[in-house]
Amino acid sequence: MATYGTQKLPLIKEFLSSIHEQEYKDFELIVVDQNKDESVKQLLDSEDWNFSFKYLKSEPGLSKARNVGLDYAKGEIVAFPDDDCLYTKNLLKDINTFFEEKPEIDVLAIDTRDTITLEKLPYTKKVSGDFEFFKNDIFKTVTSISIFCKNYNSVRFDERLGLGTKHGSCEEFDFVTQFFKRKSRCFFTDKFHVLHPDHSDLNVGSLVDKIKKHALGHGAYFKKHLLFILPTALYYMFISPIGGMIIHAFKFDFDKTKMYYFFLTTRLKGFLTF
User: Fold this and answer.
1) 184-210 as b/e, with b when 16 or more CB fall inside 10 Å?
2) Residue 201 pLDDT grade (very low, low, confident, very high; cuts 50, 70, 90)
3) In the chain, is it the N or the C terminus that has fewer CB atoms within a 10 Å radius of its CB?
4) Dist CA 32 CA 1 (whole Å)
């Protein structure tokens, strides 16, 4: 769990409580703290948790912090919870059982749901059921908080991508794409889910700011893996944003037309600047 910002301390405590209550106990929590102070360390030391943990420090940058944790990790399975998410009851037991029953799978992606309403979050809203997914399905199935990976020793996050960088997203897509390039098999299920606050209900101005922030990472990801994921790159770079602009312009919905315009231009900018 990489963490940054001391305002997250109450949420971190909730996450710690959610894994404290897990029936499955054969795991270690690796906390990678990007803060200058040690308030997170004080929180970890303040209670008698029933699981082992390791506290590490890192320079700011989400991918950089996760790589610090990966370099230390010794477990057969690794996951990347956010500092504001929650694990549901017995999730770790269910994940362990899944990999025991499907040893041929290296990456499991599960559903994401709102902490309060339990509604599906946008990350996995377009998929349901149980199925093996492939490289051009990554945008619909993968988000970092809900992937569980085996055989990860030679896989690392690209430190040019993710929060804290110019191209501030898609680090998890890049991470899973590396598994596909090794011909690993990946599976999605909505039988299990991770809980996370829903931040998608934003006004148009906030959404545009979010698009400008994250779409640079989309463009960078498409450039890095262009030939490997060509159909996905063409769809999200051009077909989806141009189609969205045309459709919503005819509907006189200029707010959404504007949003799709920024998807197009910012993804292109990310492609060209990576």
Assistant:
1) bebbbbbebbbbbeeeeeeeeeebbeb
2) low
3) C
4) 6
Question: Which neighbouring-strand residues pair with 61?
Answer: none
Q: How far apart are CA 51 and CA 74, in angstroms?
A: 15
CA distance 236 to 218: 9
Residue 131 · residue 188 · CB < 8 Å: yes
Instruction: State pLDDT tens for residues 247-273.
Output: 999 999 999 999 999 999 999 999 999
The token pair that represents 192 in the structure block: 């299990």
Looking at residues 80-98, what average pLDDT do you find? 96
pTM: 0.95
φ, ψ of residue 78 in degrees (nearest 5): -125, 145
Q: Give the N- to C-terminal CA distance of the chain in Å, as an integer.
A: 27
What's residue 202's pLDDT?
62
**What is the share, in percent, of the chain residues with pLDDT greater than 90?**
92
164: left (phi over 0), alpha (psi -120 to 50) or beta: left
